[in-house]
Backbone:
C-alpha cells in the first residue's frame, strides 16, 4: 500500500450503473463535467458540498461513496490465525474490511493481498468496492457467483456459514448478504422471524429457491421411510447449531442421543457418509444425489437471501437482485435435483 493517504471513490461505477455520462452527472450534482472527471480519477479531492451533492444524487451516504485508503487503521473482519496471511478485501457499510482467505465453496478465489511481517502487500487488481460478500450454505452458490461475475462488473466472495451465523455476520457488518433456510416452504415465516430476531433492523428477503431437505443415506441399507431409519441402529453425522439442517435434525430426534461427530455444511454430511464414517445425516437432495447416496425427503424449505434495508441501494446489491431474477440463473437452478424456482426472485 502507498504511504500516502488515498481517497478512493465509487463515482464512476455508480454513474455507469445508471447509464449516465459525466455531463449528465455534473448537471444533476450541480458541478462541472471537468470536476466530475477529476474526482473520478482521484486527481481532485471534492469539497464537502460536492461530496454531499454527489452522495445525494446516488442516494447513498458520503462514507459509502468515498473511502480513505493508504496506511490508515486496518480493519480485519476477524484476526488472521497465521502469518503470512492471504486476504480478500471488501467495503461494507463504508468500511474497508480484510477477510483472511478460507476454504470457499467457489474453490480457489484470487486473493487481494498478503499480510506479512506487519505490512500489507496489496494486489494491483484488488477492488474492494466491486466485491460482494455473501455468507451462505447453498451448495449451488457457485452458479450464482458465476452468473454474477459474467453479467455484472462485480465479483462475489462466499463465506460458508450456517443460517444463523450468516445472519450474525450481516448484523455485525461483516457480510452484505446472508443465506438462510430455517422455514418450510409452506410456512416461510421462520426465515423472517430469525432475521428479525438477529438483525433487529429493517431487511428484505429475496427468494433464491425452494429446495428439498431430508435424510442422505449410505447406499444398500434398504431403508425407505423415516420410521425405518429412526428404529435402526445407524451411525449419524450431525450438523452444528444454528444451521437449518440442525433444526431439522433436532425435530427428528426429539431429544434422543445426538450425534457426536459434526459436519460444517451439506457437503460435509455427504463426505462423511461416502467415507464410511457415518451412514445417515440431514442434507439437501442436490449434494446427496450428486454423491450417489439414497435420499428420503423430509420437507421443502424456503431458501432466502437476507438483505439489510441499509444496503439495498448499493449497486452490488441491486445487481445481485437482478441476477437472481434473471432467466439464465433460473434456467440453471431448475435443472438441479430438489430445486424449485417458481418463487425465485420474489421479495418479501
Residues:
Amino acid at each position: 500500500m502507498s504511504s500516502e493517504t488515498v481517497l478512493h471513490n465509487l463515482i464512476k461505477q455508480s454513474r455507469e450503473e445508471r447509464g449516465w455520462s459525466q455531463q449528465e452527472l455534473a448537471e444533476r450534482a450541480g458541478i462541472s463535467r471537468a470536476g466530475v472527471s477529476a474526482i473520478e480519477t482521484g486527481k481532485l479531492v471534492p469539497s464537502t458540498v460536492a461530496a454531499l451533492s454527489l452522495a445525494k444524487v446516488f442516494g447513498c451516504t458520503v462514507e459509502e461513496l468515498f473511502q480513505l485508503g493508504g496506511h490508515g487503521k486496518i480493519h480485519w473482519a476477524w484476526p488472521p490465525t497465521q502469518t503470512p496471511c492471504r486476504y480478500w478485501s471488501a467495503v461494507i457499510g463504508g468500511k474497508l474490511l480484510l477477510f483472511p482467505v478460507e476454504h470457499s465453496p467457489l474453490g480457489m478465489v484470487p486473493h487481494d493481498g498478503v499480510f506479512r511481517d506487519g505490512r500489507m502487500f496489496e494486489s494491483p487488481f484488488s477492488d474492494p468496492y466491486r466485491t460482494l460478500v455473501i455468507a451462505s450454505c447453498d451448495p449451488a452458490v457457485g452458479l450464482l457467483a458465476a452468473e454474477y461475475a459474467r453479467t455484472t462488473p462485480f465479483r462475489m466472495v462466499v463465506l460458508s456459514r450456517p443460517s444463523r451465523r450468516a445472519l450474525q455476520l450481516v448484523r455485525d457488518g461483516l457480510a452484505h448478504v446472508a443465506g438462510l433456510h430455517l422455514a418450510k416452504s409452506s410456512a416461510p415465516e421462520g426465515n423472517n422471524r430469525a432475521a428479525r430476531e438477529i438483525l433487529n433492523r429493517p431487511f428484505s428477503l429475496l427468494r433464491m429457491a425452494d429446495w428439498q431437505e431430508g435424510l442422505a443415506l449410505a447406499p444398500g441399507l434398504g431403508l425407505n421411510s423415516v420410521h425405518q431409519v429412526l428404529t435402526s441402529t445407524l451411525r449419524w453425522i450431525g450438523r452444528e447449531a444454528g444451521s437449518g439442517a440442525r433444526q431439522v435434525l433436532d425435530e427428528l430426534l426429539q431429544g434422543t442421543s445426538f450425534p457426536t461427530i459434526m459436519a460444517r455444511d451439506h457437503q460435509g454430511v455427504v463426505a462423511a457418509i461416502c467415507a464410511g464414517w457415518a451412514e445417515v445425516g440431514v442434507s439437501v437432495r442436490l449434494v446427496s444425489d450428486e454423491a450417489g447416496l439414497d435420499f428420503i425427503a423430509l420437507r421443502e424449505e424456503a431458501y432466502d437471501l437476507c438483505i439489510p434495508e441499509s444496503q439495498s441501494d448499493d449497486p452490488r446489491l441491486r445487481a445481485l437482485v437482478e441476477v437472481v431474477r434473471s432467466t439464465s440463473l433460473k434456467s440453471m437452478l431448475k435443472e438441479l435435483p430438489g430445486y424449485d424456482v417458481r418463487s425465485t426472485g420474489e421479495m418479501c
